[in-house]
Q: What sequence folds into this?
């Protein structure tokens, strides 16, 4: 059993590497097996289809990010926690960049993966809105109608989901350095922050910067 688990993990790691390098549509299970130096039958024993591989990778991704959503330093404010979260989300984009670049193809081609993605979006929406409601109760964010708050969360979710895709398409824009996604999200939020919220945001920037690279 131990060897099987190790092999399954190695397959996923190699698949992530190849998908990041070449894109999902250009990589088959035979390419992954060849790169690993194992038979296609060996790989097929663990993952019967391409969707099985992508589903396993997505579950791995979701588990990693779920930890970031729920793990919170009690000494850090809601704004500080959100700032660290979006830093990790941007870094996460590059770790699994194939998924963000090919998310439309994934949702169209792999129904089982698409279903779990939609379930994840619902959970992330609920968690983020709860966090924004904490911003309001802490005096960091101006009072907002529920529909307006949901629209704000939706805009930010679109930025996160399609950040790498827009970079590929909108090449005339210069927001490509690490930390640009974090800055863009705060640009959206800043007009809604109170004075104490802006002070707390500046504190988060001073303490943590805009990327996790130097932390």
A:
């Amino acid at each position: 059993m131990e060897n099987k688990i190790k092999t399954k993990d190695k397959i996923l790691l190699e698949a992530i590497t190849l998908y990041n390098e070449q894109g999902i549509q250009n990589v088959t299970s035979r390419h992954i097996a060849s790169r690993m130096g194992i038979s296609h039958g060996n790989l097929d024993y663990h993952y019967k289809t391409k969707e099985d591989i992508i589903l396993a990778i997505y579950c791995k991704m979701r588990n990693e990010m779920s930890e970031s959503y729920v793990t919170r330093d009690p000494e850090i404010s809601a704004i500080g926690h959100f700032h660290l979260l979006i830093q990790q989300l941007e870094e996460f984009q590059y770790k699994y960049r194939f998924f963000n670049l090919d998310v439309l193809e994934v949702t169209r081609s792999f129904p089982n993966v698409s279903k779990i993605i939609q379930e994840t979006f619902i959970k992330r929406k609920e968690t983020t809105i709860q966090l924004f409601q904490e911003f309001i109760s802490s005096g960091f964010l101006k009072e907002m109608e529920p529909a307006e708050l949901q629209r704000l969360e939706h805009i930010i979710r679109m930025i996160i989901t399609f950040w790498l895709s827009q970079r590929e398409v909108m090449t005339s824009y210069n927001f490509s350095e690490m930390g640009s996604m974090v800055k863009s999200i705060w640009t959206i939020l800043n007009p809604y922050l109170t004075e104490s919220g802006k002070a707390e945001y500046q504190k988060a920037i001073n303490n943590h910067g805009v990327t996790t690279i130097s932390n």
Remarks:
- The chain has a mean pLDDT of 92.
